[in-house]
Backbone:
């Protein structure tokens, strides 16, 4: 067909298309470009990172795996996470279980607090420097398929915006519309398997942050998950991350729980920010930015198929998040790397079939990503089935320790009886033991 | 689909008062901190059929949307301020009637986080 041939010459073609310029997409594109392939990285935002919102940490092991000279590149990070742990809130009380020093005092630290719009943007400039061709302000709306149904490119919302490549790597984030269109998963994200997280970024002077959070200088930082009163007894988690001159503070709650209780997420966040133990930490601060994002916490059971003819998927779009260990950014980077490598190997074999791209999944099986997601496959179900887990025990913990460290001059047998009573009035002992056991099973993958 | 028992429904209705216990926040104040490139020509969110919203028991979109895109007019019609959307996807996923049309804003439009 001569007409087709003419078209072929005019069409925009690359060796690899990557959809979404976040950490997964940027890394996938980088690995393919590094191997000498022509890579188009298509981003719907004005700039890479502009659609990213998170409160959290990025991980040294993953960043160094991509850039061995990572630290000489002056990455825009906030502080190392030198102290990490849990805060448990009751209505007025606060119990902290924090670890610092030891494993957390390494240089470089294992985890760094960052702001994702800034960091992802920087990450992509590193990829561009190695030859990745960025196409911003462009939305991919569908795939182009050959007569056999294999994906051979993408349709964008630009005029004459078709782009062709024998392999496309989907890194579109949690709203996995393209992953669905590619046939890698047969349903939309389920509301009981995502957390809606809202956050405020609050500006405070460095010295104020140091003093209020007990940090010696800006080379020390705090990463905290907060449980208890903040979520009104709902399955939810607060978080605090200290930046250089800012604090990320917010709350995440399962989407269906918010809906069932008619709770507005920003009302809940304000409730947390006004808690008597929290408010003084951020008093006088200016809000720099408010935002929200969904976290795909469904894990193993909600993962799409990771490959098909001409297509791979990585990052949030593939539900690569470990909710308990705060991991996600490292999974995005490592999975992105492996997807990029799989595309390179497919080019060497000149075979872009599902069978050839399966090497991506094989590689992932050997990493913490698929091992952990499998091990934790029942964890999100545990939280759904134990809605009060995050309210009963934090309050009990505060009451128990409060009773232990007060009420002096009373017979101690009475104090202990009292402590036990503050648990059993909320939960029968057997039920409490069952909760602990179920929790243990869910994280050990039994 | 499993039918909800009378007890479950009662429980749901009681639970729905939980949000009312919280002092309300004026969300527009928080949106002042955000940068948007607003697409004046095309709405990326829409109600598929307003009649269906009248049959919705919860109208959860009025609550869970983190930027208050959805409000109810005096005539009881759901209004959509797509301009303040931060593209989280909650409404698409959660609308119990599957009555919200949702797509990403066209390339270059929508929220643009500065810090993230």
Residues:
């Amino acid at each position: 067909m001569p007409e087709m041939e003419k078209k072929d010459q005019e069409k925009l073609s690359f060796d690899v298309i990557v959809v979404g310029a976040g950490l997964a997409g940027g890394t996938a594109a980088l690995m393919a470009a590094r191997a000498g392939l022509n890579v188009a990285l298509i981003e719907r935002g004005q700039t890479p990172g502009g659609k990213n919102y998170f409160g959290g940490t990025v991980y040294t092991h993953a960043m160094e795996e991509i850039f061995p000279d990572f630290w000489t590149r002056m990455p825009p990070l906030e502080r190392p996470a030198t102290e990490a742990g849990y805060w448990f809130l009751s209505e007025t009380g606060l119990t902290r279980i924090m670890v610092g020093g030891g494993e957390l005092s390494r240089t470089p630290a294992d985890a760094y607090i960052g702001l994702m719009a800034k960091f992802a943007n920087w990450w992509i400039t590193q990829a561009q420097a190695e030859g990745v061709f960025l196409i911003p302000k462009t939305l991919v709306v569908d795939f182009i398929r050959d007569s056999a149904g294999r994906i051979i490119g993408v349709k964008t919302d630009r005029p004459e915006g078709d782009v062709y490549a024998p392999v496309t790597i989907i890194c579109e984030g949690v709203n996995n519309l393209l992953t669905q269109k590619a046939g890698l998963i047969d349903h939309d994200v389920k509301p009981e398997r995502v957390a809606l997280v809202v956050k405020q970024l609050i500006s405070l002077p460095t010295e104020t942050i140091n003093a209020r959070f007990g940090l010696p200088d800006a080379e020390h930082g705090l990463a905290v998950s907060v449980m208890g009163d903040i979520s009104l007894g709902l399955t939810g988690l607060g978080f605090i991350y200290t930046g250089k001159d800012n604090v990320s503070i917010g709350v995440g709650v399962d989407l269906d729980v918010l809906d069932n209780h008619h709770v507005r997420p920003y009302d809940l966040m304000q409730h947390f920010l006004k808690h008597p133990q929290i408010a003084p930490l951020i008093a006088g601060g200016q809000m720099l930015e408010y935002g929200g994002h969904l976290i795909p916490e469904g894990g193993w059971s909600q993962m799409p198929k990771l490959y098909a003819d001409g297509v791979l998927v990585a990052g949030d779009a593939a539900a690569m998040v470990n909710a308990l260990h705060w991991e996600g950014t490292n999974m995005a980077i490592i999975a992105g790397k492996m997807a990029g490598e799989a595309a390179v190997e497919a080019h060497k074999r000149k075979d872009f079939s599902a069978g050839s791209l399966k090497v991506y999944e094989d590689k992932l099986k050997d990493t913490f990503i698929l091992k952990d997601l499998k091990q934790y496959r029942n964890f999100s179900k545990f939280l759904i089935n134990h809605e009060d887990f995050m309210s009963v025990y934090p309050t009990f913990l505060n009451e128990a320790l409060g009773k232990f460290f007060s009420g002096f001059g009373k017979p101690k047998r009475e104090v202990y009886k009292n402590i036990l009573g503050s648990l059993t009035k909320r939960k029968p002992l057997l039920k409490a033991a069952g909760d602990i056991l179920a929790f243990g099973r869910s994280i050990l993958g039994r | 689909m499993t039918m909800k028992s009378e007890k479950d429904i009662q429980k749901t209705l009681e639970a729905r008062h939980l949000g009312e216990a919280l002092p309300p926040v004026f969300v527009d104040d928080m949106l002042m901190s955000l940068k948007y490139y607003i697409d004046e020509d095309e709405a990326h969110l829409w109600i598929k059929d307003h009649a269906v919203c009248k049959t919705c028991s919860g109208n959860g979109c009025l609550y869970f949307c983190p930027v208050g895109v959805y409000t109810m007019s005096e005539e009881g019609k759901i209004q959509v301020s797509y301009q303040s959307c931060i593209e989280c996807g909650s409404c698409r996923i959660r609308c119990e009637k599957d009555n919200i049309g949702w797509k990403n804003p066209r390339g270059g439009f929508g929220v643009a986080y500065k810090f993230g």
